[in-house]
Amino acid sequence: MLKVENLVVRFKSRVGVVRAVDGVNFDVVSGERFVFVGESGSGKTVLAMALVRLLPNNATVTGRVIFDGVDLLKLSEKEMRKVRNCKIAYIPQNQASLNPLMKVGYQCAEPLVEQGLERGRIMRKVSELLEFFGIGHRFKDYPHKLSGGMRQRALLVMGLSREPEMIIADEPTKGLDAVKREQVVEAFQKLGRRTLMVITHDLPFAEKVADRIAVMYCGKIVEISPAREFFDCPLHPYSKGLLESLPERGMNPIKGFQPSLVNLPEGCRFRERCDLSTARCAEEPPLLEVDGSLVRCWLYADEMC
Amino acid sequence: MVSELRQGQGRRVSGFGGFSGFSRFSANHKMVFTGGGIILCILILSCLAPIAGDPCSVNMDERLSPPSFKHPFGTDQLGRDMLSRVLHGGRVSLIVAITISLLSMVVGCFVGAVSGYFGGVVDDVIGRIVDVFMSIPEIVLNIAMVGVFCAVYGVSTFIVIFAVVFTNWVGYARLMRGMVLSLKEREFVLCAKAIGAGEWYILFRHIIPNAAGPLIVLATLNIGNVIMTIASLGFLGLGIQPPIPEWGQILNSGKNYITTAPWISFFPGLFIALSVLGFNILGEGLNAES
Question: Contact A92/B186, CB-based, under 8 Å?
């Protein structure tokens, strides 16, 4: 359904060119729940925004984003608006994404108004959806009266109301406590089999939602695995480190810091933080296929031979 | 002992919830109410102007008579009742001032919003135009415009309105541009883009309403300035023309009699000062409140 080929996003800044997303390839099949994880600054959000072309003007995006056979990067702005409106719903990461001066219900109805539906039907549909997510009574409230979890669900309603073919949710659990997170998980489970791309650094949340997991590090995908396998036995040393840094798995954070995206080290970008690095890591590892997963690490190169 | 405690608590609770909460905001509230009160009084008086009689009926027997029961504000050199003239003048002055302020707001808002939102060349061009306007003293430009247009099209109130709006929109444009620059980076604008909304829709539906607060403050303060501008033009004989009474123009007509009949100039001057004061206090109050 969605196929991304060699996507590169560069930002020009005073200190140099930042390659926020650097040659990303993946595909999301119809009905799949594809989750991106990785630490802050690894380029997840930029990747998502690049897909729907919502990045500011100082970003240059190259590569191909094929959605239903159409390269989104080649569409005109007007056509792209239609795609955003009807086909791909991007749900922004911040709960401040609701206009403080518009009542929640009307705001959720906006995409439908844009689609040009008849008013009565719009209102019925939106209130049904709000009801479905348990915030039906908030239709005529202003966003500031809603809790973070409610706002997140309202954003989800806004995304869903237009019946998109695909939803891209950017950190839907950002800034929410465990109870609210659970509400969001429930909300996602209510979506049924809709094509979903979720970006998060909340691993327990990813575990509950994902079919497949992609791990991003410094703008590159280092591993793509089915969710079960990923949480049972992650392949890439960085994935292992991520999982081990969880409280329930020993809380051993990965040593060191993510290198600056302006001057990245040659070869494997995780090399300097990796316990298993060898001389070979000075060379950029390819994305290797191991038991139905893809991993970018030299450790698995030998098994192939 | 217990009852004492309860009483004490009761006092504190009521003090906390009621009085201190009130006193925290009362200074600003006071300004809003004072300013609003002054304006409201002047508005009501202006509405009641017809009761005071015809502002244009000449009575040469009673010319230049000092304030009395029959003519509380005295009469002018043609024996016209000053109370009636001042109140009718208030109608004209206030309506024209509010119209000018609103029109400038519409124009300035639109120009500023477009400039801030679209940026780039549009912003540069509009920015330079605004700079040019800022570099010319407003009143000079007003006088020049009124002079030219009146010479071409004859004297009318619309020319005064047009001339003042022509210089007055700049302040709104600058405020709006600044507001839009910060508002367009807000999350909800991104969200609106993500649902496929168009540029103009985002601008008018999401950005401009969020800039309303400071705009209202500016408009309120601006009305005071505009009243002064109109009065200045009137005083110079370039504003609204006789026989329509207008404060600045009445003030001017009294200047030859300032030693013998000071009331002719005093009362319109008082009303100009009061209404400007009212709008300024109201504007400051609203500003502090928002």
Answer: no
